[in-house]
Design goal:
Elements (H helix, E strand, L loop, with lengths): L1 H35 L3 H7 L9 H23 L4 H21 L7 H12 L3 H17 L2 H4 L8 H5 L4 H99 L4 H21 L16 H13 L5 E7 L7 H20 L5 E9 L2 E8 L11 H12 L3 E6 L5 E8 L8
Parallel strand pairs: 1-2
Antiparallel strand pairs: 2-3, 3-5, 4-5
Helix pairs in contact: 1-3, 1-5, 1-9, 3-4, 4-5, 4-6, 5-6, 5-9, 9-10, 9-12, 11-12, 12-13
Length: 434
């Protein structure tokens, strides 16, 4: 729509250029024709005032029209963002049009309507726009031949046309009236399309504003969901930590209590009864602790290396009961990132806990194989095994953590053949940012 308005504005300029050219050339050619017909004396006696110099009328008018076109080019391109210079050029345009109107003996003033259209199109400030439009319409009203000839001696355009025969006068008057009517029609079309474009812009602005409000609401909802997801992620993390740390510790305690009950045997039934009660409390605590949401310390290997932490873990398990856990390492031990070390520690901790608690295993073998850029972990036991592997909380957590680091994990088990966990974990370079 804006492009159409600008095209109509350009068409207005060229139509006014044609009108001024037509009027100025008619005046010039009429004066030369009068001289060629040796009718100058009769024409001057009929006319009340002296005409302008013939050649100056089209020369001045057309030259000033070209300057006006150049001024409009500057306003729409070079000075489009400089409103002060645009306003100065419009003041200059009013002066140019006043000179053109005077040169044409005030025979045409429609160019001021073109000027008003340009002010609406190119001036942003409402107060400046109203001032320029008031001046332009004032010139359009004031530059009237019948009004000005009271003070200014000027030969009207009609006197030049009246020199011709009635047939030619009809064509000349008809051409001038047609061109002026086209100018008014184009001005009305311009303002019609200009107003429609503004209405459309307002509608688009309202629609854009409504969409923006909807997007803001959606963004707020998404932000709330993100916050909720963050809270859920933190809750899951705490649940994993509780399950891994306290679950393992309570399992070891329960296993140790079972060993104590076997040692006490039937010789000391009172002690066995007390130990059994303590074991029940420990088992109940193991179930209750899964629902706890308290944050526990997770960085179990902050102050020690991975291998040392694993050795301490295995030593703690072996000292509590009859279970025997062994660790073998093959290859050159490589430095792991903190999240990699924590994942390996949690994997081995959860696997040994499951072997003791669910598999009732007596022997657990942990094998770690370091190769270039990769770590393989194999944990096997001699427990009772199972026909189908139920991916409970612990196993699902192990899979999730291994996948996050780009590794893979699988589980193997058969009834009476124990349980095997095999994990492949890529080792990131120390130069990489985790």
């Amino acid at each position: 729509m804006k492009n159409r308005v600008k095209r109509i504005y350009k068409a207005l300029y060229w139509l006014n250029f044609v009108i001024i050219t037509f009027i100025s050339l008619t005046i010039c050619m009429t004066i030369y024709k009068i001289c060629d017909d040796y009718q100058a004396r009769d024409f001057l006696e009929m006319a009340r005032y002296l005409p302008h110099i013939a050649w100056k009328v089209p020369t001045v008018s057309i030259a000033l029209c070209i300057v006006l076109g150049f001024s409009n080019y500057l306003k729409s391109t070079v000075f489009a963002g400089l409103q002060s210079r645009v306003v100065v050029l419009y003041v200059f345009d009013i002066l140019l049009l006043s000179i053109i109107t005077y040169t044409l003996n005030f025979g045409y003033k429609g160019f001021f309507l073109y000027l008003c259209a340009g002010v609406f199109l190119q001036v942003q400030s409402m107060s400046v726009r109203l001032a320029l439009i008031a001046v332009s319409l004032g010139c359009f009203t004031f530059f009237d031949y019948d009004l000005l000839t009271v003070r200014v001696n000027m030969l009207p355009f009609q006197e030049y046309i009246n020199y011709y025969s009635p047939a030619r006068q009809f064509y000349l008057y008809g051409m001038k009236s047609l061109l002026e009517s086209l100018n008014l029609i184009l001005v009305m079309i311009f303002f019609y399309m200009f107003i429609n474009s503004k209405i459309r812009e307002n509608k688009e602005f309202i629609d854009l504003n409504n969409r923006l409000k909807m997007n803001i609401n959606e963004l707020n909802l998404a932000n709330e969901k993100l916050e909720e997801a963050g809270r859920m992620k933190e809750r899951n993390r705490l649940a994993h930590e509780i399950h891994d740390i306290l679950g393992h510790s309570l399992t070891c305690i329960s296993t140790g209590l079972e060993a104590c009950m076997e040692v006490a045997g039937q010789n000391n039934p009172g002690l066995t009864s007390h130990i059994n009660k303590i074991k029940k409390v420990s088992d109940k605590g193991l179930l209750d602790i899964r629902r706890s949401v308290r944050e526990l310390k997770s960085d179990v290997i902050d102050e020690a290396s991975l291998i040392k932490s694993l050795e301490e873990l295995i030593e703690g398990i072996n000292s509590l009961g009859k279970q025997v856990v062994s660790l073998s390492i093959k290859g050159d031990i490589q430095t792991l990132q903190h999240d990699e070390e924590l994942t390996v520690y949690r994997l081995i901790q959860e696997s040994t806990t499951n072997s003791i608690r669910h598999g009732e295993a007596l022997h657990i073998r942990i094998r770690m194989v370091f190769s270039k850029g990769e770590l393989m972990i194999r944990i096997s036991d001699d427990g009772k095994g199972c026909t189908s592997i139920a991916k409970n909380f612990g196993i699902s957590h192990m899979e999730e953590q291994i996948r996050i680091l780009g590794g893979s994990i699988r589980f193997e088990s058969e009834p009476g053949a124990g349980f095997v966990t095999i994990a492949q974990l890529p080792i990131r370079s120390e130069s990489l940012n985790d």
